[in-house]
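User: Second chain of the day. Same drill as before.
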Amino acid sequence: MARARNGGDGMMEQIEPHTFGRRLQEHRRSRRQTQGDIATRLGMSRPAVAAIEAGQRRLPPELIVRLADVYEMPVSQLVRSGPPPARLVAQFRLPGEVASDRDDLAAAVARLEGLVERYVALEGLLDAPLRPLPPPPYSHSPDRIEADADAVAEAERRRIGLGDGPLVNLRDTLERESGLRIFSLDLPGRVAGLFGLSPVAGPCVAINAAHPATRQHWTLAHEFAHFLTAKDRPEITRLGAFRRQPDSERFAERFAGAWLLPRSGLERRLREVISRQQGMKIADLLVLAAEFGVSAQALILRLEDLRFLPAGEWDRISSTHVDLMAAHRLLALPEGGRDVRRFSRRYVLLALEAYEQDLITEHELAEYLELDRLALRELLSTFSRSSVESEEGMAEIELDLAVPVAVDV
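Assistant: Same format as last time:
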């Protein structure tokens, strides 16, 4: 534990290193200073300052006194104890329907919290915080759920610049543009996703790693709706959990449909198909569903809502006992494998960069990426070398992804 002396007043109270590091980071950012600025004033390296902010160094009292001088504040204020930040586990009101399900949910929430804290530690090491453009505040009225959801979906597509076509790389887009930290985790079977606001890192989401890709795609849009309208209220999204859906769930479901399947984009694609072949077939709907990354059922129900198809069309198609999975294979549509990546691309690249800069050891990198030593060595080999074909046959070339690139913007 870090300890500090306040002049001759004796030893200050203890403070947990990670808490102390986050406090230093907050003070630095509030003063619009970089880790390099602080390092210069302390006569230290920037990586050393990054390690302090990440809570990876135990500080002697003399250094804490110097830090207080740099930040121009009393030592007592810098190391003061305070109420611990609210934990995600405490924020979620876990249901008690089935004891085993409740235990699994509690474990998943705790797991999500730990991964988010690791993510923030990596950002602290590299002084690379996530800086999304925050969306404006949205709300919805009980008597205008559908209209409000449609309007918010259209506004968010416009804000992010997504147009009205299919959404690709949705997970990376939501992280980059809106700051959602998204992880793919093992969740109870009927739980599609979790959304919570981390006191350390902001909004975070877990999607069920075992669910099909189309379900995961829909879940991400659903959780994004909770983020847009109820940031401070954790949510557990279950499949078929409500006979009578609460307003928040009705809004999130409607938003997901409107955001993933915008009216204008669907109408344009339907007109293209109809004008080309003078009609629409079930096969065309399957192709369209695969294009937009949703299930055939989700697409057809959305088209019913928009009155592009007659009401009850999904029930009619279902009653014909058409084998949609076999049709999917027959049409050679993309499988859209479920997303089992525990970490986002940005998280992995941050971990690799920290390793390349000698800010973390190989053992620590393995812990960050949750890989055994053999798998890690294979990953590092992939990132350092690549095979190319030449006149002499296959040859190995260096593949250094950290080479600087001059950009003029």
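The chain has 19 helices and six strands.

User: Great, on to the next one.
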